[in-house]
Write a structure and sequence with these properties.
single chain, about 200 residues, mainly alpha
Length: about 200
C-alpha cells in the first residue's frame, strides 16, 4: 500500500504537472485580459507539459529510459536538454506575445535551473521531482508573500514518495528542493525589479 501511494504521488507531481499548476495560478493572479491568460496557458501547456511528457514517453517506449522513474542518471540528460530547448522556445513566444515579466522570469528560472540540473546530472542524480516542485513553491511564496509553512507538506510528501520508492537519497531530495526554490525566488525578485 505504501509503495502504491508513493507511486501515485510521484505520478501526480511529475515536473510538468508542477509547472502547469504554477502557470495556472500565475495566469489567474496577474491577468484580467483573457487573451494574455490564454496565451500564457497555451505556451505553458505546449512547451512545459505536452511536449516534455511526449518526449519522455517516446524515449521510454524506445528503450532510451528504462523505467518511469528514469533511475539511471545517464538516461536523464537527453530529456533535460530537450526540456531546456522547449523552455527557451516558450520564453521566446512569451516575450513576443508581450506576456507579463513574471512569466518571462519564470521561464528564465526554468531554463537556468535545468542547465544546472544537467551539469549536476553528469556526476550525480538530483531529484527532478523536488526541483520541479521547488520552482512553484518559491513562486507561490514570491506571489503571495505569506506564511509558507502550511504548503511545505507538498514537497515533504513528494520527498517521502521518492524515498519510499528508493529512487533518491535524502541528500538528493533536499538538494533538488533547494535548487528549485532558492534560485527561483532570487530570479523572480531581481527580474521584477528590471521591468
Amino acid at each position: 500500500m505504501k509503495i502504491k501511494l508513493a507511486k501515485i504521488i510521484s505520478y501526480i507531481f511529475v515536473p510538468p504537472v508542477s509547472l502547469m499548476i504554477i502557470f495556472i495560478i500565475i495566469a489567474n493572479q496577474i491577468y484580467i485580459d483573457t487573451r494574455l491568460k490564454f496565451m500564457t496557458l497555451v505556451i505553458a501547456a505546449m512547451f512545459g507539459f505536452i511536449l516534455p511528457v511526449f518526449v519522455f514517453l517516446f524515449l521510454r517506449k524506445n528503450g532510451k529510459i528504462i523505467n518511469d522513474d528514469a533511475t539511471l542518471k545517464e538516461e536523464r540528460t537527453v530529456p533535460f536538454l530537450i526540456g531546456i530547448g522547449l523552455a527557451i522556445i516558450a520564453l521566446i513566444f512569451s516575450y513576443f506575445h508581450e506576456l507579463h515579466s513574471l512569466i518571462l522570469g519564470l521561464w528564465i528560472s526554468y531554463i537556468l535551473i535545468q542547465i544546472v540540473v544537467v551539469l549536476i546530472n553528469l556526476n550525480w542524480k538530483i531529484s527532478a521531482h523536488l526541483v520541479g516542485i521547488g520552482i512553484p513553491y518559491a513562486t507561490f511564496i514570491f506571489l503571495f508573500k505569506t506564511e509558507f509553512s502550511y504548503i511545505l507538506f507538498i514537497p515533504i510528501l513528494i520527498g517521502w514518495a521518492r524515498l519510499t520508492l528508493k529512487v533518491h537519497t535524502p541528500l538528493q531530495i533536499v538538494a533538488g528542493f533547494l535548487l528549485g526554490t532558492i534560485p527561483t525566488y532570487f530570479i523572480l525578485t531581481q527580474f521584477i525589479k528590471l521591468f
